[in-house]
Every structure is written in C-alpha cells, then in structure tokens.
Write a sequence for this structure.
C-alpha cells in the first residue's frame, strides 16, 4: 500500500511490526507438520524457525515503548517465551530424539481451565485454603468431567483429566483397610428397578387415560374399570 501511495511512508514501520508478530504468533501456534502460513509449520532441524527466533529476539531488544521504562510487560514476555522455546527444542531434540515440535499445545490453558473448574466447585472462592482446594479437586476427580464455563477466557482444550481418584492418598485411613475396601466395591451395581420398560409404559398410559376419562363427560366412554 505504501508503494501504491495509498499509505504514507511512515506506515512501513507499522507493516514491518505487524508482519513480524504475525509470523511470531504462527511460530508459537503450529498444529501440523506442513502449513501454508509463514512459520506456521512444525519446528524441525531443517526449518527456519531457529534463525527466525534469533532474529526476532534481537529485533525485540531494539523495540522501545513510549513510556518511562521504555518497555512493556508483553515485550518482556515474548523475549522470555522465545528463549524458553529454543531451550525446549534443544532439550527434546537432543535428549528425547524428537524430530519435530508442534507448539500449539505449549501453553497453560489446560491449567487455567482446570483451576476455573475447581474454583467453581468451591463456590467461586478466589483464595481457597489447602483443605478447600483438596476437597474441590477430589470432587472434580469424582465427576471425571471438566465442564468449562461459558464465560471462560480460554478456548476449550482436549485434555483428559490428569489424575484419578485412586491416585489420591486417603487421610486418616489405614492403607490395608482402604485397599481392601476398594477391592470389595463391585465394578457394576444391579439396576434399581427390575420392571420391564414395557410395563412402565403401560402403567403410564393407564394413568393418562384415567385422567382424561375423569375430565370428559361423554355418553359413550370407556368404563374406569377397564382402565
């Protein structure tokens, strides 16, 4: 747009800033090995991600905010995130033999969603005690479902719950007794009602017919005894 004189020359700096951060966001949100977006593919040995991250980190050191400190927290956060990503890639590649790394899941949204559920279980207490937190966590494990609030500030994640109730040690209970009680609990319980569904439907149908018969005053009607 600057070359077409649609924008002033000063807009080049803004365009460069937007392009740099667009590629940086793509780098931290890769979901597939290949992508049409620049820096949107997986990090690998042959990719340009490390060069781009090093250049971006140096460029961020030159960015100055128009305030007293000359910086803002998000810029410091980006510098820290870039350093962490480079160290993480070196570790998983050298120590664990990773051939590529997808960065979309490198966030704390799973933890924030978990804490939001636990906070809801505890009556939305923002400063629960250790005992209150433990009780809410156990209740969440019992429910075995992470139900996220409609007003959540994070997108839904696809994680399963990381713990189960069996992994939580019981307090004030002998370990041998607790283990025996767990073995004695049946895997399945018998149904509460042994009445066939057909009988239930027939009983409900008769009740509705009696209700209708009591309200109608027809000359020809079904005898209540037949119902």
């Amino acid at each position: 747009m600057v070359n077409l004189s649609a924008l002033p020359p000063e807009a080049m700096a803004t365009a460069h800033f937007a392009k740099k951060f667009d590629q940086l966001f793509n780098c931290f949100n890769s979901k597939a090995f290949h992508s049409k977006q620049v820096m949107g593919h997986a990090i690998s040995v042959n990719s340009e991600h490390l060069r781009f991250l090093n250049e971006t980190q140096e460029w961020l050191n030159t960015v100055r905010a128009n305030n007293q400190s000359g910086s803002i927290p998000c810029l410091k956060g980006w510098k820290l995130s870039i350093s962490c990503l480079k160290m993480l890639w070196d570790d998983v590649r050298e120590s664990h033999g990773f051939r590529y790394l997808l960065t979309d899941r490198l966030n704390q949204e799973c933890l924030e969603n978990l804490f939001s559920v636990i906070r809801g279980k505890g009556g939305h207490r923002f400063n629960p005690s250790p005992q209150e937190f433990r009780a809410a966590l156990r209740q969440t494990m019992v429910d075995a479902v992470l139900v996220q609030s409609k007003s959540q500030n994070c997108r839904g994640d696809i994680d399963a719950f990381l713990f189960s109730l069996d992994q939580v040690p019981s307090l004030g209970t002998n370990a041998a007794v607790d283990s025996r009680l767990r073995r004695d609990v049946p895997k399945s319980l018998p149904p509460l009602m042994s009445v066939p569904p057909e009988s239930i439907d027939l009983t409900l149908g008769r009740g509705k017919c009696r209700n209708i018969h009591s309200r109608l005053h027809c000359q020809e009607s079904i005898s209540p005894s037949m119902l």
In short: The radius of gyration is 31 Å.
